[in-house]
């Protein structure tokens, strides 16, 4: 097959590119703005094509797109209202429209779990007060239903993404983890009400590579919409696991109820964006039927927080 991938210079993109290069023999086309940022070996085998270009000018490669069998759309813009809309909405829609109904078998599109509620339905607040990134991901997903190739789109919703290494860019969360650890001596005394999922970039790549080969066999219960994540953790569980890993004992935890947090915000006049304030009150960012490699009977690289911390060399 001929596979076209965007966003390979990012954390998730590096893991996907490496997996496709080493685990498949397909013809690969990687669109990248700056090839100097690529840390994987794109000379590992034949059939790897580096296309230098910007996603906003995706139609420069319309001739190639018309021959593509699988498109994997990971590229994203994180901020700036105009820039986010141009990349996250317009460019992705233009790319999908440039694919051929005759040749294209699958489109694997990366959204974000932040636009979903706990029942995996669209979260209205994400489209109204979300960050530029979240709001434009919401807007793009809504537009997908109007496209000719909509029935060939599998949408992936990553939860909290960790990953990175000496030969791969770190995700935003992995990059900021050391700063969080500095505060664990204080954080360990509190019991925050909240819960979340996480997933490692390598496990995302394993799922994507499996979908490339077997996406047409995906169980109908998922309706071609997959939330990527391990089983949920409570904030209290996460604090205890991290503290154990860094040898800080948790003797007891003081409950930190949401009403008290809201009082602190008002008394100290803490400035918060509407989305941040919504997240503080929403608290439980959990989803139904999270998917990871074990869902497809494949080995999971970081199935637990303990294994994730080991992988990140936290001690």
Automatic annotation (TrEMBL):
Pfam families: Epimerase
Name under which the protein is recorded: NAD-dependent epimerase/dehydratase
InterPro entries in UniProt: Epimerase_deHydtase, NAD(P)-bd_dom_sf, NAD(P)-dependent_oxidoreduct
Domain NAD-dependent epimerase/dehydratase: 3-218
Origin: domain of life: Bacteria
SUPFAM superfamilies: NAD(P)-binding Rossmann-fold domains
Molecular-function GO terms, alphabetical: aldehyde dehydrogenase (NAD+) activity
GO cellular component entries: cytoplasm
């Amino acid at each position: 097959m001929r596979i076209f991938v965007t966003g390979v210079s990012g954390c998730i993109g590096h893991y996907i590119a490496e997996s496709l290069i080493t685990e498949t023999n397909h013809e690969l086309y990687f669109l990248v703005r700056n090839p100097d940022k690529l840390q994987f070996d794109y000379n590992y085998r034949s059939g790897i094509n580096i296309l230098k270009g910007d996603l906003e000018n995706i139609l420069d490669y319309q001739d190639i797109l018309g021959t593509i069998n699988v498109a994997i759309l990971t590229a994203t813009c994180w901020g700036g209202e105009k820039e986010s809309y141009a990349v996250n909405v317009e460019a992705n829609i233009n790319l999908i429209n440039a694919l051929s109904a005759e040749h294209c078998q699958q489109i694997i599109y990366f959204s974000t779990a932040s636009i979903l509620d706990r029942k995996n339905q669209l979260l209205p607040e994400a489209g109204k007060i979300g960050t530029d990134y979240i709001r434009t991901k919401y807007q793009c997903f809504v537009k997908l239903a109007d496209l000719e190739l909509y029935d060939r789109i599998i949408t992936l919703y990553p939860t909290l993404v960790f990953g990175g290494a000496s030969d791969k860019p770190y995700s935003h969360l992995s990059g900021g983890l050391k700063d969080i650890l500095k505060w664990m001596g204080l954080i360990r005394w509190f019991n925050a009400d909240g819960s979340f999922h996480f997933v490692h970039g390598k496990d995302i790549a394993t799922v994507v590579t499996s979908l490339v080969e077997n996406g047409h066999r995906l169980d109908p219960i998922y309706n071609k919409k997959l939330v990527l994540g391990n089983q949920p953790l409570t904030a209290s569980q996460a604090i205890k696991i991290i503290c154990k890993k860094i040898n800080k004992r948790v003797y007891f935890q003081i409950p930190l109820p949401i009403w008290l947090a809201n009082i602190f915000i008002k008394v100290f006049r803490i400035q918060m964006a509407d989305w941040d304030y919504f997240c503080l009150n929403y608290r439980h960012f959990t989803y139904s039927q999270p998917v990871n490699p074990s869902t497809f009977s494949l080995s999971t690289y970081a199935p637990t927080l303990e294994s994730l911390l080991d992988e990140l060399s936290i001690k």
